[in-house]
Amino acid sequence: MGEYVKVAKTSEIAPGTVKYVEVQSNPIALFNLNGNFYAIGNTCTHRGGPLAEGLIAGDEVTCPWHGARYKIPTGEVLGPPAPMGVPQYNLRVQGDDIEVEV
Ligand code: FES
């Protein structure tokens, strides 16, 4: 069990958007999908592309560099060229605060 760290306000991330945060040296992409928040590793496992700058479609994000696709709620990889998924982080909303477990 890690500790929950406050990383953002819910109002900072509109539905359908994403925000990059760094939590204790972990690069994390925070997504809002229809009001539900998710946190996964920001760094694409192919060549390190920034998933927080990727295109969101449904519950998938596409890496902006070479097009690998990831499932936002789990971090699993859905399409090449990325060889594996990215970490998924537990997240909770406390009032207006988004907290991620690291
Ligand atoms: S760095 Fe993400 S697909 Fe290449």
Largest sheet, spatial ordering of strands: 2-3-4-9
CATH topology: Rieske Iron-sulfur Protein
Indicate the proportion of strand residues: over 45%
Characterize the biggest β-sheet: 4 strands, antiparallel
Structural class: mainly beta
Radius of gyration: 13 Å
Specify the number of helices.
0
Number of strands: 11
What is the helix content?
Answer: under 10%
Q: Mind telling me the CATH class?
A: Mainly Beta
Given as residue ranges, the uncertain stretches (5+ residues, pLDDT < 50) are none
Task: Write down the overall mean pLDDT.
Answer: 97
Shape: globular
Provide the list of bound ligands, each named once.
FE2/S2 (inorganic) cluster
Supply the CATH superfamily name: Rieske [2Fe-2S] iron-sulphur domain
Count of distinct structural domains: 1
**CATH architecture level-2 label:** 3-layer Sandwich
Structure keywords:
102 residues; mainly beta; Rieske Iron-sulfur Protein; 4-stranded antiparallel β-sheet; 0% helix; binds FE2/S2 (inorganic) cluster
Task: Walk me through this protein's architecture.
By secondary structure, the chain is mainly β. The model has no long low-confidence stretch (mean pLDDT 97). It has a single domain (4-101), classed as Rieske [2Fe-2S] iron-sulphur domain (Rieske Iron-sulfur Protein). It is built from no helices and eleven strands. The strands form three sheets. Strands 2-3-4-9 form a four-stranded antiparallel sheet, with no helix packed on it. Strands 5-6-7-8 form a four-stranded antiparallel sheet, with no helix packed on it. Strands 1-11-10 form a three-stranded antiparallel sheet, with no helix packed on it. The protein starts with a strand and ends with a strand. The protein is 0% helix and 48% strand. It is globular and about 40 Å long. FE2/S2 (inorganic) cluster (FES) binds at residues 44, 46-49, 63, 65-68, 81-82. Residues 44, 46-49, 63, 65-68, 81-82 line the site of FE2/S2 (inorganic) cluster (FES).
